[in-house]
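User: Some background: our group keeps a shared notebook of sequences we're curious about, and every so often someone picks one and asks for a predicted structure to add to the entry. Today it's my turn. The entry only has the sequence so far, pasted here. Could you supply the structure so I can complete it?
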Amino acid sequence: MGRALLQVQDVEKALDVTISKAVEGPINNFVTDSRKVTPGDIFVALVGENFNGHDFLNDAFSQGAIAAVVTQEIAEPHFLVADTLLAYGKIAAAHRAKLKAKVIGVTGSSGKTSTKDLLSSVLSKFGNTVAPSGSFNNEIGMPATILSADLSTEYLVLEMGMRGLGQISYLCEIAKPDIGVVLNIGSAHMELLGSRAAIAEAKTELVLSLDAAGTAIINADEPLILSYLPKIQAKVLTFGEAPSSDIRVDDIALNQAGLPEFEINSFGESSRLELQLAGEHQAMNAAAVVAVTQSLDLDFAKVVDALAKAEPTSSMRMQVVDLPNGITIINDAYNANPESMRAGLKALKAMAKGRRTWAVLGEMRELGQLKVEAHDEIGRLCVRLDINRLVAVGEAGKILQIGAAQEGSWGNEAQWEPDVPSVIAKLKKELQPGDIVYIKASRAIGLERVAEALISEFSAENSAP
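Assistant: Of course. Here's the predicted structure to add to the notebook entry:
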């Protein structure tokens, strides 16, 4: 399917270079993975720490690429540039300039992907919507999402992550968002940036990039975000529990399935809403979605109805799996920070309903000087919530276990395991029908392997003759 809105001369203008030789036919798409090249595509040879797209040029051309973006001369038609990653961004920016869609950027220390998924689900009820699957939120993934949109796209939802100051500004130069959402300021990236104030500075680059025609959606409960109000040129809508919020959330409670129920209020209209996504924190994500839709003048009642029906789409984010033997796995292992881990543990407690609860927790990374304090607090929270069993994994897991022990855990309630295989062995041996297991850590720890192993083990056990 041809999606590209650019012709060769558009690419030449965007990159300020001339193609080495003429090509025939229209451009189909711009592809960075040689395995996904189809006839008519232009292959962009990205270079990373562990890969070099130039090694796969033959594969790309054999599969029908009509040209490539490269940093070295080749025999085939090509655009010669100094940096293929920057070139990819320039191509995406040129493509975005031709789109008619409303572009919505979403960032925050936590909840970006869940909010993006909710936005995509709701906006699709009002028009053709494009959003990334998973967390395509960096300088490679975000341009790929932009390039997947075409002239029929009415809403383009983009997730924006960052690893330092200036990165979201760079993404905004490409995306030129009409609406920017800053969800929250947490502890993630503390190791990299040093303080929550610096994290706020990096995250608010999104709303500071907007001009007077844009709309900034910000969290009214976050003083660090509100401090940037005088610098924002765009119209501002706020969401949160604060009485001053334009979109206000009241009376949040978790039901026995761990799903949040709450009152949502928007410019004189209100409704009781229950989401299909587990965790108290999802209420704020939903409020941000309502704020976006109100800035687009969409019908409030229809928006609330769409939110109530929206189901989880991205894996490993409060993903609940009920196994045949009565064990429930909550796979929340995609990533972790103190804020999201606290919310997940509260959801586990709400879902318990008298069942034995397990928290399988590993390191939360990028916390810098907060590492010991944050892990200690989570260990103590497990005790205060009366989680029956804590299994702490890896070196940082020792801090979790010690925190639980000092808060009042005893015996085998809080145990430490050195690695993922030992956790899997323990759980396979000790889990009983009816148990509910919550699994969370930073992605690099790989705790999703625990969920996968348990699901495989107990599903196969049930199906054995």
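Suggested note for the entry: The first strand starts at residue 30 and ends at 31. The radius of gyration is 24 Å.
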